[in-house]
Design goal:
With about 170 residues, this protein is an alpha/beta fold. The protein is built from five helices and six strands. Helix 3 (about 70-80) packs parallel to helix 4 (about 95-105).
Length: about 170
């Protein structure tokens, strides 16, 4: 289990990469190291779930074919336990049925074919983090709007009571 951070600029956005092949994780680290993305790595689904228990993970990029727990099973569990996490499947196998199962049961946002294009991988990560940022901002704005609407409702009720009180006094 490796918790590796690279040039932290946004501490609330962390991407977890899961692959049972250390060479794949090393390749991804070389690509991500050039960015300002916080990253964690895991070599199994169980290890990934343990990291979720101790870290605030924004996005997960998981290999499809892994022993003990497939990427599809992992992402399905992540969708159930951490539904706000942006989920990406990474695979060298073009098994459409498995990919469709992952999309349908794990709520996968994106699919990347191995070998990947570095720019496509980085763009996928950037898009996922931007999507998450916008969702969080939207949630914050909705909460603010709810509070403002509640305050307006209370003000309207207060004004209504005052008006009714004045009308009753004049009658």
């Amino acid at each position: 289990m490796t918790a590796e951070k690279t040039q932290v600029t946004s501490p609330h956005f962390t991407v977890l990469f899961v692959d049972d092949e250390p060479s794949i994780l090393r390749s991804i680290k070389r690509i991500i190291h050039k960015t300002n993305i916080n990253m964690l790595t895991a070599t199994s689904g169980q290890e990934a779930l343990e990291l979720f228990a101790t870290h605030d993970i924004t996005m997960i990029v998981s290999d499809m074919k892994m022993p003990n727990m497939s990427g599809s099973e992992l992402l399905e569990k992540v969708a159930q336990l951490y539904p706000e996490t942006y989920r990406v499947i990474l695979t060298g196998f073009a098994d459409l049925d498995s990919i469709m199962q992952a999309v349908n049961h794990g709520g996968i946002h994106r699919y990347i074919q191995k070998p990947w294009d570095n720019q496509d991988l980085l763009l996928t990560i950037k898009d996922g983090l931007q999507f998450t940022k916008l969702k969080r901002e939207n949630h914050t704005l909705q909460q603010k709007l709810f509070k403002q609407n509640r305050a307006l409702k209370e003000l309207a009720q207060s004004l209504d009571k005052k008006l009714n009180s004045k009308l009753n006094k004049s009658n």
